[in-house]
Amino acid sequence: MGQQLGCCVPQGVNDVFTSLNIRFMRKKKEEKALRSAGAELSEPFAIDWTKARPENWKFESSTGPGSYFFKFEPEIDDVKGPISDGEKKLKSRPENYEGMMYQTSMKDWPSDQQSYKLVKRTGSGYSFTAGQSENFTYVQAKYQALERYDRISLDPDPYTDSMSFRRQRLGKPCHPGRGQGICDVPHIKIIGEIHPNDIIQGSVGDCWLLSAISALSEFEGAIATLFRNTRYVKDLPKNSPQKYTITLYDMKTWQPVDIEVDERLCMKPDGSDLLGCHPSYDGELWACYVEKAVAIHSGGWDEIDGGQCTHAWRLLTGCKYQYTFMNTGDDEFQCLGKFNPNSQEWDPLENSGHKGSQGLWPMDWPVVGGGGDKRAKCGLNEMFERMCAWDDQNYVMAAGTKAGSDTNTTDGIVDGHAYTVITCLNDVAGTEHDLIKVRNPWGKGEFTSGQWCDDGPGWADYPQVKNVCKPTKANDGVFWLSKEEFFKYFRTVYLCAQDMTAFIK
């Protein structure tokens, strides 16, 4: 099992790649692999509630002490007036309001002394705390896209109910789209117009996995390839209970294996929210099920709590040619990987990245980009040129920040965190600006300094660059940096040296 296994070495690459000519060999957009339908998103996504079917709205009341929690600060209208008017407003305009709260006893007061609170539908994650106290009543407008969860007969998979995380048993799993507060939207789907922004990290430390998946999602058909053994996946989910098959690769045999999961998603131990990643803002669930399948394939949620993007790409694509390029501290990058130069064999691996070989060996550089033996190093400018060549070859990339806690940030860049490298552009719009577009798998949190952040002066100073890059002013985790800024904050670059067109075939 040596270097002769060239599944990820491009065929017919005869050009001489050097830092001098890569810049002049860049492929045009139409010459590269087709990007996914949503990859060119230029505006923040908003749920189109006008497509909601009126008969699918359900209004449920609960009582409690009046407390609530939320993900983002909710917008709440305090209204003085009859509570019955508030109920009518909620039921006539549920696309604008997700609920109303009032003091329970107040409903018997004179109407001119009544008041209530209307919670606007802003995606805040507002959640009323139900309890034994009946001091306050909350009426919630729920959209039920599919048959209610307690009215279906599910054949459970053998994994979901027994899974745990960090030695804690998980809460009761949730059925998306079935009235339990997860993906209860009119356009729920497994796969739609796929975009890297479809991934929103949950409470598991698997940014390495989600960044790797996000990088794949740039390419039209890549995610559908993972679901290739799920019949009619683009027409799912349906009212009947669902199961999905995700095809991954076994690290001992390097053969594809099918992981079948049921529709339920794991919840945190206290049941307050999803444990893993969340459905996309436009109601796509593919990322949730790919993550769940990888967790099962690896041996549980704890086995994907921390890892490397390169291992994720092995599991997802079956490609052995995974590279880690590390800044050695002198602004030069070294090429590392799992091929042992002494034995001339690949190190043995397990499906869990926490098991099997943990070290890295110096490796020959990929042919695309210039090549070089395992002793070679390259400076920052040359590294950028190589990244441009890899981008043109339809390879996927990610980047890691300096070691540290992900509770610490520098100019908005999170320590100890993996980001997706979406694209590399040189001499943008005929200028001398070299830019790199990256994404935080948290789905929020961006670079807050420099010329090319969302509010940076570069876009106004160079409108032709803005016209090419089409930056979106939204806290969606996607942002641009100059190549100098990129190498300042990102000390490691990860590469899957497989042309995505070959994977998708």
UniProtKB/TrEMBL annotation:
Record-linked InterPro entries: Calpain_cysteine_protease, Papain-like_cys_pep_sf, Pept_cys_AS, Peptidase_C2_calpain_cat
- SMART domains assigned: CysPc
Pfam families referenced in this protein's UniProt entry, alphabetically = Peptidase_C2 (PF00648)
Q: Tell me, which GO biological process terms does this entry list?
A: proteolysis
Gene Ontology molecular functions: calcium-dependent cysteine-type endopeptidase activity
Say which domain of life the source belongs to.
Eukaryota
- Domain Calpain catalytic span(s) in chain numbering: 178-499
Annotated coiled-coil positions are none
**rRNA-binding among keywords:** no
Which Gene3D superfamilies would you find in this protein's record? Cysteine proteinases
- List the active-site residues: C207, H417, N440
* The keyword Iron-sulfur is assigned to this record: no
Which keywords label this protein? Hydrolase, Protease, Thiol protease
Q: Which PANTHER family match?
A: CALPAIN, CALPAIN-5
Indicate the family of this protein.
Belongs to the peptidase C2 family.
Provide the protein name.
Calpain catalytic domain-containing protein
Q: What is the lineage of its organism?
A: Eukaryota, Sar, Alveolata, Dinophyceae, Suessiales
